[in-house]
Design a protein that fits this description.
This protein is of the alpha/beta class. It contains 7 helices and 12 strands.
Amino acid sequence: KKNFENINDIIKMNIKIVSPKIEIKRYFENEDPIIKINEIIKLSDPKKNSDTLYIFPEGILSGIYFNELQDFEKIFRNNFYDDDAIILGATINKNSNIYNSLILMHSNLDVQSVYHKNNLVPFGEFLPFEKFLHKFGIKKITRGYKSFSSSEKRDLIKYKDFKILPLICYEIIYSGNLNKNKVNYDFIVNISEDGWFGNSIGPHQHFAHSIFRSIEEGKNVLRSSNNGISAHITPTGDLANYLKSTESGVIEIGSMKLKKNTYFSLTGNKIFFYFMLIYITLIFF
Protein backbone atom coordinates (compact mmCIF):
# COMPACT_ATOMS: atom_id res chain seq x y z
CA LYS A 1 0.00 0.00 0.00
CA LYS A 2 1.26 3.48 -0.89
CA ASN A 3 0.56 6.79 0.77
CA PHE A 4 -0.27 9.25 -2.02
CA GLU A 5 -0.67 12.28 0.22
CA ASN A 6 1.42 15.29 -0.80
CA ILE A 7 3.33 13.46 -3.55
CA ASN A 8 3.19 13.12 -7.30
CA ASP A 9 2.95 9.50 -8.34
CA ILE A 10 1.74 7.37 -11.22
CA ILE A 11 -0.62 4.58 -10.27
CA LYS A 12 -1.43 1.61 -12.43
CA MET A 13 -4.97 0.27 -12.39
CA ASN A 14 -7.47 -0.95 -14.96
CA ILE A 15 -10.56 1.23 -15.25
CA LYS A 16 -13.29 1.29 -17.88
CA ILE A 17 -15.57 4.33 -18.07
CA VAL A 18 -18.67 2.98 -19.79
CA SER A 19 -20.77 5.47 -21.75
CA PRO A 20 -23.94 3.96 -23.24
CA LYS A 21 -26.45 5.98 -25.21
CA ILE A 22 -29.74 4.81 -23.74
CA GLU A 23 -32.38 7.28 -24.87
CA ILE A 24 -34.20 9.07 -22.08
CA LYS A 25 -37.63 8.08 -23.43
CA ARG A 26 -36.83 4.41 -22.74
CA TYR A 27 -36.97 5.17 -19.01
CA PHE A 28 -40.72 5.65 -19.28
CA GLU A 29 -41.53 2.63 -21.45
CA ASN A 30 -41.36 -0.07 -18.74
CA GLU A 31 -38.65 -1.82 -20.72
CA ASP A 32 -37.36 -5.15 -19.44
CA PRO A 33 -34.25 -4.30 -17.33
CA ILE A 34 -32.46 -7.33 -18.80
CA ILE A 35 -32.32 -5.55 -22.18
CA LYS A 36 -30.45 -2.59 -20.68
CA ILE A 37 -28.21 -4.80 -18.54
CA ASN A 38 -27.19 -6.88 -21.56
CA GLU A 39 -26.50 -3.72 -23.57
CA ILE A 40 -24.20 -2.39 -20.86
CA ILE A 41 -22.39 -5.71 -20.43
CA LYS A 42 -21.82 -6.05 -24.17
CA LEU A 43 -20.42 -2.52 -24.32
CA SER A 44 -18.20 -3.15 -21.26
CA ASP A 45 -16.69 -6.29 -22.84
CA PRO A 46 -15.35 -7.83 -19.58
CA LYS A 47 -12.06 -9.73 -19.84
CA LYS A 48 -10.89 -12.54 -17.59
CA ASN A 49 -8.10 -11.76 -15.10
CA SER A 50 -8.20 -8.05 -16.00
CA ASP A 51 -8.95 -6.86 -12.43
CA THR A 52 -11.01 -3.98 -13.75
CA LEU A 53 -13.12 -1.24 -12.16
CA TYR A 54 -16.15 -0.52 -14.38
CA ILE A 55 -17.86 2.87 -14.01
CA PHE A 56 -21.45 3.04 -15.27
CA PRO A 57 -23.58 6.23 -15.46
CA GLU A 58 -26.36 7.48 -13.24
CA GLY A 59 -29.86 6.14 -13.72
CA ILE A 60 -29.24 3.48 -16.38
CA LEU A 61 -31.31 0.98 -14.39
CA SER A 62 -34.20 3.31 -13.62
CA GLY A 63 -37.49 1.60 -12.98
CA ILE A 64 -36.04 -0.91 -10.51
CA TYR A 65 -34.67 -0.48 -7.01
CA PHE A 66 -31.21 -1.79 -6.22
CA ASN A 67 -32.56 -4.64 -4.08
CA GLU A 68 -34.49 -5.81 -7.16
CA LEU A 69 -31.21 -5.94 -9.07
CA GLN A 70 -30.38 -9.03 -7.03
CA ASP A 71 -32.82 -10.88 -9.30
CA PHE A 72 -30.27 -10.43 -12.09
CA GLU A 73 -27.23 -11.54 -10.08
CA LYS A 74 -26.69 -14.55 -12.33
CA ILE A 75 -26.26 -12.29 -15.40
CA PHE A 76 -23.57 -10.25 -13.67
CA ARG A 77 -21.84 -13.29 -12.20
CA ASN A 78 -21.76 -15.04 -15.60
CA ASN A 79 -20.31 -12.04 -17.45
CA PHE A 80 -17.99 -10.34 -14.98
CA TYR A 81 -15.20 -11.96 -12.99
CA ASP A 82 -14.33 -12.32 -9.31
CA ASP A 83 -11.61 -9.66 -9.45
CA ASP A 84 -13.87 -7.07 -11.13
CA ALA A 85 -15.69 -4.24 -9.37
CA ILE A 86 -18.51 -2.01 -10.59
CA ILE A 87 -19.60 1.54 -9.80
CA LEU A 88 -23.10 2.45 -10.91
CA GLY A 89 -26.02 4.70 -10.08
CA ALA A 90 -29.09 3.08 -8.56
CA THR A 91 -32.23 3.95 -6.65
CA ILE A 92 -32.33 2.69 -3.07
CA ASN A 93 -35.50 2.37 -0.99
CA LYS A 94 -34.52 2.51 2.68
CA ASN A 95 -36.65 3.20 5.76
CA SER A 96 -39.44 4.72 3.64
CA ASN A 97 -36.94 7.07 2.00
CA ILE A 98 -35.84 6.90 -1.64
CA TYR A 99 -32.25 7.81 -2.48
CA ASN A 100 -30.43 8.50 -5.73
CA SER A 101 -27.25 6.60 -4.94
CA LEU A 102 -23.80 5.67 -6.19
CA ILE A 103 -22.83 2.09 -5.36
CA LEU A 104 -19.49 0.29 -5.45
CA MET A 105 -20.03 -3.45 -5.65
CA HIS A 106 -18.30 -6.67 -6.61
CA SER A 107 -19.26 -8.68 -9.68
CA ASN A 108 -21.61 -10.83 -7.56
CA LEU A 109 -23.51 -7.62 -6.55
CA ASP A 110 -22.01 -7.73 -3.06
CA VAL A 111 -22.05 -4.06 -1.98
CA GLN A 112 -18.80 -2.55 -0.75
CA SER A 113 -19.73 1.15 -0.45
CA VAL A 114 -22.83 3.32 -0.90
CA TYR A 115 -23.13 7.09 -1.31
CA HIS A 116 -26.50 8.89 -1.26
CA LYS A 117 -26.77 12.08 -3.29
CA ASN A 118 -26.56 15.27 -1.23
CA ASN A 119 -27.65 17.97 -3.69
CA LEU A 120 -30.96 17.13 -5.34
CA VAL A 121 -32.36 18.83 -8.45
CA PRO A 122 -35.52 20.86 -7.67
CA PHE A 123 -38.54 19.50 -9.58
CA GLY A 124 -36.28 16.87 -11.17
CA GLU A 125 -35.61 14.83 -8.03
CA PHE A 126 -37.72 16.51 -5.39
CA LEU A 127 -40.81 18.68 -5.44
CA PRO A 128 -40.66 21.89 -3.40
CA PHE A 129 -43.81 22.41 -1.29
CA GLU A 130 -44.60 18.80 -2.05
CA LYS A 131 -47.55 18.38 0.34
CA PHE A 132 -49.33 21.35 -1.21
CA LEU A 133 -48.52 20.71 -4.87
CA HIS A 134 -49.46 17.02 -4.65
CA LYS A 135 -53.05 18.14 -4.13
CA PHE A 136 -53.00 19.40 -7.72
CA GLY A 137 -51.47 16.18 -9.08
CA ILE A 138 -48.05 17.77 -9.61
CA LYS A 139 -45.02 15.52 -9.17
CA LYS A 140 -41.30 15.56 -9.88
CA ILE A 141 -40.12 15.08 -13.47
CA THR A 142 -38.20 11.86 -12.95
CA ARG A 143 -39.82 8.47 -12.61
CA GLY A 144 -41.88 7.77 -9.49
CA TYR A 145 -44.36 9.88 -7.59
CA LYS A 146 -42.45 10.42 -4.35
CA SER A 147 -39.54 12.83 -4.02
CA PHE A 148 -36.02 11.57 -3.40
CA SER A 149 -34.48 12.12 0.02
CA SER A 150 -31.09 13.80 0.36
CA SER A 151 -28.17 12.87 2.57
CA GLU A 152 -25.82 15.27 4.33
CA LYS A 153 -22.87 12.86 4.38
CA ARG A 154 -20.31 12.57 1.62
CA ASP A 155 -17.86 9.98 2.84
CA LEU A 156 -15.12 8.69 0.59
CA ILE A 157 -15.61 5.27 -0.94
CA LYS A 158 -12.70 2.86 -0.96
CA TYR A 159 -11.54 0.69 -3.84
CA LYS A 160 -8.48 -1.38 -2.94
CA ASP A 161 -5.97 1.13 -1.51
CA PHE A 162 -7.59 4.09 -3.21
CA LYS A 163 -9.99 6.68 -1.83
CA ILE A 164 -12.61 8.00 -4.22
CA LEU A 165 -14.74 11.12 -3.87
CA PRO A 166 -18.22 10.25 -5.24
CA LEU A 167 -20.34 12.85 -7.02
CA ILE A 168 -23.68 12.31 -8.73
CA CYS A 169 -24.73 14.45 -11.68
CA TYR A 170 -24.68 18.21 -11.08
CA GLU A 171 -22.99 17.91 -7.68
CA ILE A 172 -19.82 18.56 -9.71
CA ILE A 173 -20.82 22.24 -10.07
CA TYR A 174 -20.42 23.08 -6.37
CA SER A 175 -17.06 24.82 -6.44
CA GLY A 176 -15.15 24.74 -3.15
CA ASN A 177 -17.59 22.40 -1.45
CA LEU A 178 -16.89 18.95 -2.88
CA ASN A 179 -14.63 17.50 -0.20
CA LYS A 180 -16.82 18.27 2.80
CA ASN A 181 -14.64 16.43 5.31
CA LYS A 182 -11.41 18.00 4.00
CA VAL A 183 -9.62 14.64 3.97
CA ASN A 184 -7.14 13.45 1.38
CA TYR A 185 -8.39 11.31 -1.49
CA ASP A 186 -7.05 10.01 -4.79
CA PHE A 187 -9.55 10.82 -7.55
CA ILE A 188 -13.14 11.87 -8.30
CA VAL A 189 -15.83 9.69 -9.87
CA ASN A 190 -18.76 11.62 -11.33
CA ILE A 191 -21.73 9.71 -12.77
CA SER A 192 -24.47 11.55 -14.61
CA GLU A 193 -27.54 11.37 -16.83
CA ASP A 194 -27.55 14.34 -19.20
CA GLY A 195 -30.43 13.23 -21.38
CA TRP A 196 -32.75 15.64 -19.56
CA PHE A 197 -30.97 18.54 -21.29
CA GLY A 198 -32.07 17.32 -24.72
CA ASN A 199 -30.20 18.93 -27.62
CA SER A 200 -29.41 22.10 -25.66
CA ILE A 201 -26.02 23.42 -24.58
CA GLY A 202 -26.65 21.85 -21.15
CA PRO A 203 -24.42 18.73 -21.50
CA HIS A 204 -21.49 20.90 -22.62
CA GLN A 205 -21.91 23.36 -19.75
CA HIS A 206 -22.22 20.49 -17.29
CA PHE A 207 -19.03 18.94 -18.64
CA ALA A 208 -17.15 22.25 -18.52
CA HIS A 209 -17.73 22.41 -14.76
CA SER A 210 -15.98 19.04 -14.43
CA ILE A 211 -12.84 20.52 -15.96
CA PHE A 212 -12.81 23.43 -13.51
CA ARG A 213 -13.29 21.09 -10.54
CA SER A 214 -10.36 18.90 -11.64
CA ILE A 215 -8.06 21.94 -11.66
CA GLU A 216 -9.37 23.35 -8.37
CA GLU A 217 -9.09 20.04 -6.56
CA GLY A 218 -5.94 18.88 -8.33
CA LYS A 219 -7.52 15.49 -8.98
CA ASN A 220 -8.33 13.20 -11.89
CA VAL A 221 -12.04 13.27 -12.71
CA LEU A 222 -13.51 10.08 -14.15
CA ARG A 223 -16.87 11.00 -15.62
CA SER A 224 -19.42 8.50 -16.91
CA SER A 225 -22.46 10.10 -18.47
CA ASN A 226 -25.37 8.65 -20.36
CA ASN A 227 -26.40 11.02 -23.18
CA GLY A 228 -23.61 13.34 -22.06
CA ILE A 229 -19.85 13.75 -22.39
CA SER A 230 -17.87 10.99 -20.66
CA ALA A 231 -14.20 11.65 -20.00
CA HIS A 232 -10.97 11.15 -18.10
CA ILE A 233 -9.87 14.64 -17.05
CA THR A 234 -6.37 15.05 -15.60
CA PRO A 235 -5.58 17.14 -12.48
CA THR A 236 -4.46 19.98 -14.77
CA GLY A 237 -7.76 20.06 -16.67
CA ASP A 238 -6.50 18.29 -19.79
CA LEU A 239 -8.66 15.72 -21.54
CA ALA A 240 -6.80 12.41 -21.49
CA ASN A 241 -9.74 10.89 -23.37
CA TYR A 242 -13.41 11.62 -23.92
CA LEU A 243 -16.56 10.53 -25.73
CA LYS A 244 -19.05 12.96 -27.23
CA SER A 245 -22.65 13.05 -26.00
CA THR A 246 -23.71 11.50 -29.31
CA GLU A 247 -21.33 8.54 -28.95
CA SER A 248 -21.50 5.30 -27.04
CA GLY A 249 -18.30 3.55 -26.09
CA VAL A 250 -15.72 2.85 -23.41
CA ILE A 251 -12.76 4.86 -22.15
CA GLU A 252 -10.00 2.55 -20.92
CA ILE A 253 -7.49 3.75 -18.34
CA GLY A 254 -4.31 1.85 -17.49
CA SER A 255 -2.62 4.46 -15.30
CA MET A 256 -3.15 7.88 -13.77
CA LYS A 257 -0.86 10.51 -12.36
CA LEU A 258 -1.86 11.68 -8.91
CA LYS A 259 -1.01 15.18 -7.74
CA LYS A 260 -0.71 16.60 -4.26
CA ASN A 261 -3.60 18.60 -2.85
CA THR A 262 -4.08 22.13 -4.13
CA TYR A 263 -4.39 25.00 -1.69
CA PHE A 264 -7.90 25.62 -2.99
CA SER A 265 -8.95 22.03 -2.20
CA LEU A 266 -8.06 22.66 1.45
CA THR A 267 -9.59 26.14 1.84
CA GLY A 268 -12.43 26.11 -0.68
CA ASN A 269 -13.91 29.50 -1.51
CA LYS A 270 -12.50 30.92 1.73
CA ILE A 271 -9.40 31.64 -0.32
CA PHE A 272 -11.18 34.66 -1.85
CA PHE A 273 -11.89 36.03 1.62
CA TYR A 274 -8.16 35.72 2.39
CA PHE A 275 -7.28 37.61 -0.80
CA MET A 276 -9.72 40.38 0.11
CA LEU A 277 -8.29 40.58 3.62
CA ILE A 278 -4.74 40.87 2.30
CA TYR A 279 -5.83 43.50 -0.24
CA ILE A 280 -7.61 45.63 2.40
CA THR A 281 -4.62 45.31 4.71
CA LEU A 282 -2.28 46.54 1.97
CA ILE A 283 -4.55 49.53 1.36
CA PHE A 284 -4.33 50.54 5.03
CA PHE A 285 -0.54 50.17 4.99
